[in-house]
Amino acid sequence: MSYISSYYASSANAAPERLVLEGDHHCDICVIGAGYAGLSTALHLAEKGYKVIVLEAEKTGWGASGRNGGQIINGYSRDYDTIRARYGEDTARALLNMGFEGADIIRDHIKKYNINCNHSPEGSFFAAFNDSQMKFLERRKAIWAEGGNNETEIISRDKLSDYVGSALYCGGLLDKRGGHIHPLNLALGEAAALESLGGKIFEKSRVLSIDTGTKPKAITERGSVSAAHIVVCGNAYIGNTAPQLQSRFMSVSSQIITTAPLTDAQASALLPGRHCVEDCNFLLDYYRITADRRLLFGGGVVYSGTTPHDIEGRLSPKLLRVFPMLQGVKIDYAWSCNFALTLTRMPHIGRLSDTVYFIHGDSGHGVTTTHLLGRLTAEAVAGQAERYDIFANMKNYPFPGGRVFRIPFTALGAWYYGLREKMGI
Ligand SMILES: Cc1cc2nc3c(=O)[nH]c(=O)nc-3n(C[C@H](O)[C@H](O)[C@H](O)COP(=O)(O)OP(=O)(O)OC[C@H]3O[C@@H](n4cnc5c(N)ncnc54)[C@H](O)[C@@H]3O)c2cc1C
């Protein structure tokens, strides 16, 4: 299988054909999965001088890292107060202080390795529908300032049209340390950076099983890699390769559509400052203007993780609700992709054994966090596990309902939160 059809696949930078793993190989660290989590881990390790091999089941950036909304969003899927209530003040503070590092890593990689991924540094905009969401954003602004991000601004209703040309919202928060990128080209650029440091990537090389013993080994159909450490970064697409992770996440799909190129005037009427936008709902809409002036619009989830047959039909009404002036606009691309949802909606990292680490569970918000967690995992492998263990010690819970009932249970929970939002509570 090559890339799934998408706007990103059709506008990807040229990349080398990579080999399939054949025979038995040895290295310092073997990483499973060439998404952001795997590439960030591998690149940070290669920068420290380790010999790294990445094994990818499909193609580099084939998963969520090459098919997402491209939004560089700071922080986590859960807000500071939820994290503090759940894990305590010390953990919440430590996470807050690391909450802007993932975006900095992305910008560093783009600059250091000269990655052409249409990086748009204007910032990210969080749009509020009602007063209670505005209060939430005001609290976010105050908390983020305590964590070192003073580059945010509350935008009131009278200034809103400078940021979003939609009558739906009552205001928002601008984060100037956000931005957006062509996500597949970021992944391809990070892969090239890894290879420039001597790292190797094998594609079409699905790891079928992992020996998690003192001499760990990743085994594919045609070969194997033995290493001092293995890092599992297969996220929503890991399947049965790491059975220990199966009950800890649900593979959930989200969909994106992309319009035909708009005129400059049309694009400016929608998003005058070219910021990317996500709204504050539990099941949120997210959108931005691409480098060639298309509106790229995502929203909704399918809890069974399947691809809906009519993505355009599902998303167009949402798009038109935000921007009714786009009635009749041609949709050039529509695709679906899966992310790994945890019960806590926080990323989940840890060790399957003394030698095997894992990163997964971005919960739909992981462009920045996967980059951070890759760095922390590299630190831990190199013997500095202090920051890593703050995350690894956060309790993660299996989904209730077992394999049969966890999808309806989770959908029911989401319906409940969606209903609360519709009622404005
Ligand atoms: C539609 C959509 C839109 C999103 N939009 C945003 C956004 O705008 N901003 C944001 O912050 N987050 C967003 N996210 C989330 C973000 O994309 C993810 O958090 C992030 O890309 C996850 O990276 P990853 O490396 O963990 O997983 P992935 O990118 O999915 O990579 C996992 C890789 O592992 C490979 N793999 C799996 N199993 C094996 C195996 N056994 N052997 C070898 N290889 C294997 C897969 O083929 C895949 O390439 C979105 C997600 C989706 C689905």
Would you kindly provide a brief summary of this structure?
This protein is an alpha/beta fold and 425 residues long. The protein has helices spanning 7-10, 36-47, 80-87, 89-98, 101-112, 131-146, 183-196, 264-270, 311-322, 367-381, 386-392, 402-422, and strands at 23-32, 52-55, 71-72, 124-128, 152-155, 171-175, 179-180, 200-202, 207-211, 217-220, 223-232, 250-259, 276-279, 285-289, 295-302, 331-341, 348-351, 356-360. The strands form three sheets. Strands 1, 2, 8, 9, 10, 11, 17 and 18 form an eight-stranded mixed beta sheet that branches.
Give short descriptive properties of this protein.
single chain; eight-stranded mixed β-sheet; FAD/NAD(P)-binding domain; binds flavin-adenine dinucleotide; alpha/beta; globular; 24% strand; 32% helix; 18 strands; 425 residues
Folded structure, characterized:
The protein is of the alpha/beta class. The chain has one domain (7-392): 3-Layer(bba) Sandwich (FAD/NAD(P)-binding domain). It has twelve helices and 18 strands. It has helices spanning 7-10, 36-47, 80-87, 89-98, 101-112, 131-146, 183-196, 264-270, 311-322, 367-381, 386-392, 402-422; strands spanning 23-32, 52-55, 71-72, 124-128, 152-155, 171-175, 179-180, 200-202, 207-211, 217-220, 223-232, 250-259, 276-279, 285-289, 295-302, 331-341, 348-351, 356-360. The strands form three sheets. Strands 1, 2, 8, 9, 10, 11, 17 and 18 form an eight-stranded mixed β-sheet that branches. β9 and β10 form a beta hairpin. It starts with 6 loop residues before the first helix and ends with a helix. The model has no long low-confidence stretch (mean pLDDT 94). It binds flavin-adenine dinucleotide. Flavin-adenine dinucleotide (FAD) binds at residues 32-38, 55-58, 62-65, 67-71, 73, 206-207, 233-238, 241, 254, 256, 286, 298, 337-339, 362, 364-368, 370. Flavin-adenine dinucleotide binds next to α2, β12, β16 and α10.
